[in-house]
Design brief:
- This protein has 296 residues and is mainly β.
- It has one helix and 23 strands.
- The strands form five sheets. Strands 4, 6, 7, 9, 14, 15, 16 and 20 form an eight-stranded antiparallel beta sheet that branches. A seven-stranded antiparallel beta sheet has the order 5-8-17-10-11-12-13, with no helix packed on it.
- The radius of gyration is 22 Å and the shape is elongated.
- The protein starts with 16 loop residues before the first strand and ends with a strand.
- The N terminus is likely disordered.
Length: 296
């Protein structure tokens, strides 16, 4: 209650209910449920570079960058309730891919992911969700410890991005999005659909210009190229998506929180003609407001 579902949207949908009107019983409440966030579309993939659903495996929806699991992952309940809709990482496992986004000086990028971390309070437990890392700097990375950060920048130039003193290792699902806007020269971190931190930038060289550094999920090399990976995630990861554009704050909010939708049980009228099945009248109420609800 009181949290905006999308910029400009009504923030409070308290006292939500659906009513049915029949000739025998006017305006009585019927069975309903509220449903929210949804997985990303499998077909609307405009500007999507790679999309790992992690539904028990490391396949890319686009079929270009299927990942290889190094270690052992376990299928677990995903963010959207599917029994094998995410992968659980044990703190020593990662997914290696051949995806190597090259971002020009004026280029844009959006990286989004759902993550659920095992509860912990250890500040030394540095957990990278998804990363493209070079030997002398970071191309981009989500890292979580007692704070949460999206770092972005050319190797060796010093990364910028969003860093907030919020520890999201609480056992709940969180949506993370890192957005680099090449036109505005800004980089931001969104947590659960809300801009949590941002910074300005003035890069003079592209990120990952030779395409050498590949996307990895669940780990990063913290000690230099070619050396053993030193940081791993302990928790579950779902829906890793890379876009080659800066997605809007409205898109991020809708992905993280979802537009509120109501699903209800509708009845058809008994006096319907053959082959015609009209519904009774239904109304959606919230607070003191109401509107006609369309049964489908």
């Amino acid at each position: 209650y009181g949290t905006a579902y999308a910029p400009g949207a009504q923030p409070d949908f308290d006292d939500l209910r659906v009513t049915e009107t029949t000739p025998w019983q006017p305006d009585h409440q019927t069975h309903f449920e509220v449903v929210g966030a949804r997985p990303h579309s499998d077909t609307d993939l405009d500007h999507v570079v790679a999309y790992w659903k992690l539904d028990g495996d490391a396949k890319d929806v686009l079929g270009k960058y299927d990942g290889t699991v190094a270690g052992t992952t376990t299928a677990t309940h995903g963010r959207f309730g599917d029994a094998a809709g995410a992968l659980a990482f044990d703190g020593s496992t990662q997914i290696l891919t051949s995806c190597a986004p090259i971002v020009a000086v004026d280029g844009s990028l959006t990286v989004e992911v759902w993550a659920r971390f095992a509860p912990k309070t250890d500040g030394s437990a540095y957990e990278p969700v998804t990363v493209t890392a070079g030997s002398s700097g970071t191309s981009w990375a989500f890292v979580v410890t007692t704070y949460t950060e999206f770092a972005f920048g050319p190797a060796g130039s010093g990364a910028v991005g969003g860093l907030v003193s919020r520890d999201i290792r609480d056992g709940a699902w969180h949506h993370l999005a890192g957005v680099r806007d090449g036109n505005a020269k800004t980089t931001g971190l969104y947590i659960d659909g809300v801009l949590a931190g941002s910074s300005n930038e003035a890069f003079s060289s592209p990120v990952n210009p030779d395409g050498k550094w590949k996307v990895r999920i669940g780990a990063m090399d913290g000690s230099g190229a070619g050396k053993p990976d030193t940081y791993f995630v302990q928790g579950a990861i779902d829906e890793v998506i890379i876009h080659d554009v800066a997605k809007s704050s409205d898109y991020i909010a809708k992905r993280a929180i979802g537009l509120p939708r109501v699903r209800f049980l509708a009845h058809t009228t008994p006096e319907a003609e053959a082959g015609v099945f009209p519904f009774y009248d239904y109304a959606l109420h919230w607070g003191n407001a109401a509107t006609k609800a369309q049964a489908t």
